[in-house]
Amino acid sequence: MEITLSPLESSLSKTFLTSIYQVNDGGNIRTCLQCGTCSGICPFGYIMQYPPGKMVGALRTDIFDQVIKTDSVWMCVSCYACTEFCPSDIPITAGLMTRAKEEMVLAGNIPTELQSALENTQRYGNPLGESPRKRADWAMGLQPEVNILGKTRQPVDVLWFVGDYASYHPRMVSATKALAKILDALGIKFGILGPEENSDGDSQRLAGERGLFEMMTQKNGQVFKKYQFTEIITTDPHAFNALKNEYPSLGISYPVKHYTQFLAGRIEQLKPLLKKTIQTKIAYHDPCYLGRANGIFDEPRDLLKAIPGVELVEMSHQRTNSLCCGGGGGGMWLDGFQWEKAHTRLSEWRVREAVAANADILAVACPYEPPRFEDAVKTIQTASHLKVRELAELLAEAMDL
Ligand code: SF4
Ligand code: SF4
């Protein structure tokens, strides 16, 4: 496509705009209305020196070099709110913000904590810096034994892509075990990759490390080819997003579902197994990469409503207008940096919303969230009664597993 730029769009601005035009719908950036919706809805827009709308303005006036001299873009948690509400359908999250982060990475203007997560991913295949050999340790002692495909080489119906935090994070292991038990109770023939699984790489991509994302994609793609399975399920919405929307453009394409979609598809089989009553009010937090980015709002709610005794309450930000937990787009590895700038965390805002909705439990379906929200609960006096539960933990409890 021939790109016509105004005389003002020279040098860095020109190169940068050209790269945005290559992103799906990237050319729409020409039609920015400067309405400010993106900057207004951005959870950290108030603190960014260059929130997205102003960044477009900087491109138009050829002062983009000033944008990358600031560290404004590292406040972006890739939550997709700006993209969702932009009246000109500009791919702000995937285009403008992610490309800006790539420029920052190239310029070496990158917070140390993020740098270390990226180095860990390159070295160990996960951002936590854990040994790949320990990736299936969470499954030790579980009965029936979890099928690690590299050991058994058995064909399965479902390849469960467990993911980084669900495999390693001490808070998440109980939820991961719960999901394994649920799959067993439903009679699903599933297997995991264990030590052969690498990070899905999606959050690293959105944090500006496209090369690292492609490396993870190729490694996972090579492993997928070794085994026979019909479909993939993921614990992590970021992995779901990568496998569904990003891996196919690199030639790796399989049917994929988030585990909440997969279970909701079997809800009639599940309902008779949900025997225990959990008398409680639950607020469900829509993860950005399940809800806003991929339109999965009802399935997790349907699963929660199927638990006897559960009353679902809604928080003020919900569904397409959900509030990010702060972990996406590298936010998981920018807590210190963002705290210094904002002196607040998005997870704390969210916990306050759950309290305002009179919830007893904040239910989540993304492995970034339990540790983030539990930390937030500890800092908010009025939230001391609030429990944070992964959806699989709640289902397993109701199934008495
Ligand atoms: S919401 Fe869209 S049209 Fe409005 S300022 Fe932002 S990028 Fe431009
Ligand atoms: S993706 Fe979210 S955090 Fe990033 S600029 Fe858009 S609204 Fe702000």
In this structure, how is the largest beta sheet organized? 4 strands, parallel
The helix content, as a percent range, equals 40-55%
Q: Going across the major beta sheet, what is the strand order? A: 2-1-3-4
Categorize the overall geometry: globular
CATH topology of the largest domain: Rossmann fold
Radius of gyration: 21 Å
- Report the portion of residues in β strands: 5-15%
Helix-and-strand structural type: alpha/beta
N-to-C series of helices and strands? HHHHHHHHEHHEHHEHEHHEHEHHEHEH
* Structure annotation, total helices: 20
CATH class of the largest domain: Alpha Beta
State the end-to-end CA separation.
Answer: 57 Å
**Unreliable runs, pLDDT <50, ≥5 residues?**
1-5
Mean pLDDT: 95
Any idea how many domains? 3
| Number of DSSP E strands | 8
What would you say the CATH architecture of the largest domain is?
Answer: 3-Layer(aba) Sandwich
